[in-house]
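The aim of this short unit is practical: by the end, you should be able to scan a pair of folded records and say something sensible about each. We start with the first protein, listed as its amino acid sequence and then its structure tokens.
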Amino acid sequence: MRPKFVYFDLGNVLCFFDHQKSVENMVALTGSDPKKIRDIVYVMDLEHRYETGLVTGHEFVDEIARELGITMLDYDLMLEAASDMFLPNDEVLPVLDRIRRMGIPMGILSNTCDAHWQWIVKQNYRQLNFEFDPIILSYQEKVMKPNSEIYRLSTEKAGFKANNIFFTDDRIDNIEAAKAFGWMTHRFVDSAELLLLVDQWE
């Protein structure tokens, strides 16, 4: 069935990311050990709270400093270090181009934080030069995939019924939640496989 609207996940679909690179960047700035940084940001759920909009970028950095016993960290340098972990997935460009030529509107639905989003936008990746509307970001909506509320909001903002919306994401929990909400879904593995699926919409 040909959808009337397509949502793309951002991380590991439009762009690749590597948490280890982010950790290494922050280690270089703080002089801490990688395990300590990883525990503070990921195990203690600081990143999750930042991506849900429960803490600001300054609060994110302040909490890292506090946990490390450091008096102060440079906000801009730390947020840059935390964000400099993305690379564009250029293989997805033909998929985006094909969908655009079909006249199907596209949007982005991503669990992300302000610093990561702003960093990606500044890179001017070709992926973001497509006319995505709406762009649904968890930190702005204060809710994250796979919570059903974010699919409800995204359905409303897309302006189509749930069964007319297609969504691709690399995470199975997000895909299953979208499918339960009534969306058409495809778990993203690689761009070539997705392009084959999109070709069937012609």
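Turning to the second protein, read its sequence before its tokens, just as you did above.
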Amino acid sequence: MKKPKFWTLNKSIVLALIGGFGVLLVQVRYDHRSVVGDNAIAWIPIVYSILMIVASAVGLLFWTRGGRQTLLVGFLLAIPVGLAGYWFHTNGRLVRSVQHELSAWVRKIPDDDKPPALAPLAFAGFGILGTLACAKRFQPPISSSQSLDALLDS
């Protein structure tokens, strides 16, 4: 009987997201260097990125034994993390802040000390990608011989 393939597109996406969370971790830690001492909220994306790097690595190892489902929850949490960051970066002025950032395409705007409004939405984007990769609906089909092998191996 043929063994199921260990590596799938979905696992490759999660592996790429590990790298993405690593890049976000370094960038956010650098960008938040001046505010983490004053505001504990600035630690949320840093700690979350570390947790998702570790959880994703473990989830890949235990993909068929609950790892995928656990990662699904972790990736779903990335969406509110990103939206909360968007809220904090814009001080609740969501549309005005985006208009300000988009205005850089048509006119020169002076440098300011405002945090980038759209940057936290990277977490939401990673969350959506990871959720799709871990959702049961998008898993490769298991043939009857593969499911029989899984039953015999357990």
